[in-house]
Amino acid sequence: MLKEYIYIFLISMVPLIELRGAVPAAQLMGLPLLPSYVIAVIGNMLPVPVIFFFARRVLEWGADKPVIGGFFSFCLKKGKQGGDKLMQKAGGGLYVALLLFVGIPLPGTGAWTGTLAASILDMDFKKSVIAVMLGVMLAGVIMAVAGGALATAVSAIS
């Protein structure tokens, strides 16, 4: 079972998949929900400080390089778009908007993009991490409920 938990941990660290893919994967593997959820949250949050402090610098440095420039520019563009969406919708509740941005499980709105957006917007680190963590936890609950409902529907059909 340790091997499966390691898979869940690693899946939750992958950009774009993150916890949103790890929680359903744990359910498909038949792992207990609570430990899988906790492991997925930890795995999803582990890269957040690195992303906040270093990703923008690395992406800006590599945006004009021949081989990696296209991908790095795409990542910067995605972070800027996320930041712009947050600013437009947030008004004074920027951290609540960040929480909701990360917490609503849609493609491209996870902890990686939310943290990059917070970094690009020069938001406070501690408040950003708290908002991202709460968002990750919200997304995990939504995915667990959706996965459980889907499993129930599939078992009722069969």
Distance between the termini: 27 Å
Number of strands: 0
Number of helices: 8
Low-confidence stretches: none
Radius of gyration: 16 Å
State the helical fraction.
over 70%
User: What structural class do you assign from the helix and strand content?
Assistant: mainly alpha
Give a quick account of the main beta sheet: strands, pairing sense, barrel closure.
Answer: none
Order of helices and strands: HHHHHHHH
On the 0-100 scale, what is the average pLDDT? 90
- Overall 3D shape: globular
Strand proportion: under 5%
List keywords for this structure.
about 160 residues; about 0% strand
Describe the structure.
The protein is an all-alpha fold. It has a domain at 48-157. It has helices at residues 2-13, 18-29, 33-45, 48-62, 69-90, 94-103, 111-120, 125-157. Helix 1 packs across helix 3 (33-45), helix 5 (69-90) crosses helix 6 (94-103) and helix 6 packs parallel to helix 8. The chain is globular, with a radius of gyration of 16 Å. The protein starts with a helix and ends with a helix.
Task: List the SSEs and their pairings.
Elements: H1 2-13, H2 18-29, H3 33-45, H4 48-62, H5 69-90, H6 94-103, H7 111-120, H8 125-157
Helix pairs in contact: 1-2, 1-3, 2-3, 2-8, 3-8, 4-5, 4-7, 5-6, 5-7, 6-7, 6-8, 7-8
Summarize the structure.
This protein has 158 residues and is an all-alpha fold. Helices cover 80% and strands 0% of the residues. It contains eight helices and no strands.
